[in-house]
Amino acid sequence: AVMKNVTILGAGYAGLRTLRELQKSKEDFSITLVDRNRYHFESTDLHEVAAGTQPWEKITYEISDVVDPAKTTFIQDDVLKIDPEKQEVVLKDRGVITYDYLVVALGFRSETFGIPGATEYALEMVDIDSARKVHDHILTAMDQYQATQDRKYLNITVCGAGFTGIELVGSLVENKKAFAKRAGVKPEEITIFCVEAAPSILPMFNDELRSYCLNKLKKWDVALMTGKAIKGLKENTVVYADGEEEKELQTGTIIWTTGVSGSEVIGASGFEERRGRVSVHPDLRDPKHENIYLIGDVSAVIDPLTNRPYPTTAQIALKMGAHAGRNLLAQLKNQPTKAFSFQSLGSVASIGNAHAFGLVGKVNVKGYPASFVKKMIMNKSLLETGGVKEVMAKGRFDLYR
Ligand code: NAD
Predict the structure, then answer these.
(1) 257 lines ligand 1 (CB under 6 A)
(2) Which one, of 398, 340, 384, lies nearest residue 61 by Cα?
């Protein structure tokens, strides 16, 4: 028989976790892995690159480090479209490749909700390039302040106070001194704004954790503006609703973190989707194609407790990656696949390098112990995709004060 091919699209948490599972197998099949970058990046740490508190190399590693050349071919290319009927993937440079089984793990993109000006005037933070652009932009704004003495250049605005927005704010605060030095001002002259539509932040946490976070933001002079829906952006301007009124905030830097949707490839390929996510069969396959798995941010699995899809996180992406790998191996051996189940281990958000808060299981953690837990979580996800080598090279070991 001709050797079967499994093609994995995307080398993020989900895709690399599947790769790892498949490469462990002694079965006879070939693997193709496609990603637009030569490297894997830790998307949970992009805010550190955007704020400039970590160099981009710290949160990436070479995909070739985790590819077993005896089993896997890595193709660096952009995925444009999938044709599920012809079992083909269209790549930007290389053209068409074919597969027997497909694992779609193409990740997220920034969701603008069609808000006017968002694409033109805000910076997104979705990959290494865009995160580096944020940092470069902030430095340029500080230079523009020097040149013009226009104080709007000292304002940095984060749009949306979800986990991503809050973590970004934390890292921006941490780097305020460096920005101030560049602008030739005192750190307290730089203001970090965070504009959020909802009346309060972090609805998933209880009062204790919320107050911990709010107190830190207050102590650090973050201008948190809750209950202010962003209506539009103009150059260096955020237009937001304040009750019945529309107001404007002048700011040299605007960063967009109001939420994510799944890769645009999902829509372009004709999958039945909502915001780039496919409601998958319980075993993580496309309901219409039994040789296609959709995992990570392009996948929606209903949480039986809330009757809504689980939120997209690195944690669930890793779990889905492992599960899809095991189901694929079963399928290759003509054995039945299993339903995916998920029990969150909790979630911890960092605010700067030394502070964090969140839930581990059902237990509240905050402050330095939480920061320790957060770093262990980061190391664990590195271990799960990259193995011991990447943990040693890129792990977080500044665990002791
Ligand atoms: P999100 O959807 O969780 O948060 C976006 C925020 O932007 C919301 O608070 C929303 O009310 C606000 N918003 C949306 N439109 C707005 C508007 N027009 N004006 C003002 N505010 C607006 O998105 P996210 O923070 O990018 O997170 C994406 C996913 O990743 C989530 O599931 C999150 O839990 C997860 N995540 C987890 C961690 C962690 O565990 N440490 C870190 C980052 C992200």
Answers:
(1) yes
(2) 384
Cα(325) to centroid(ligand 1), Å: 29
Q: How far is the CA of 161 from the centre of ligand 1 (A)?
A: 6
Residue with tokens 């390929």: 269
Q: What is the pLDDT of residues 385-396, one digit of tens each?
A: 999 899 989 999
For ligand 1, the distance from its centroid to the CA atom of residue 70, given in whole angstroms, is 40
Instruction: Report, as residue numbers or ranges, the catalytic residues.
Output: 167
Tell me the CATH number for domain 4-36+77-110+260-342: 3.50.50.100
Given the candidates 3.40.50.300, 3.50.50.60, 3.40.30.10, 2.30.29.30, the CATH classification of the domain at 118-256 is: 3.50.50.60
What is the three-class DSSP state of 312?
A: coil
Using CA atoms, how far residue 292 sits from 218, 251, 327, in Å, is: 48, 45, 11
Place of tokens 């509240």: 364
Nearest to 388 by CA among 2, 38, 65, 25: 65
Predicted-complex ipTM score: 0.97
pLDDT, tens digit, 9 for 90 and up, residues 1-15: 689 999 999 999 999
Q: Which of 108, 228, 258, 312 best tests ligand 1's pocket when mutated (most atoms within 8 Å of CB)? A: 258
Q: Is 284 helix (H, G, I), strand (E, B) or coil?
A: coil
Q: From atom 4 of ligand 1, which residue's Cα is the shortest distance away?
A: 162
- Is any atom of ligand 1 closer than 6 Å to the C-beta of 347? yes
Query: Does ligand 1 lie within 6 Å of residue 165's CB atom?
Result: yes
Residue 164's nearest CA partner among 349, 330, 372, 358 is 349
Bridge-based pairing state of the strands 278-279 and 191-195: unpaired
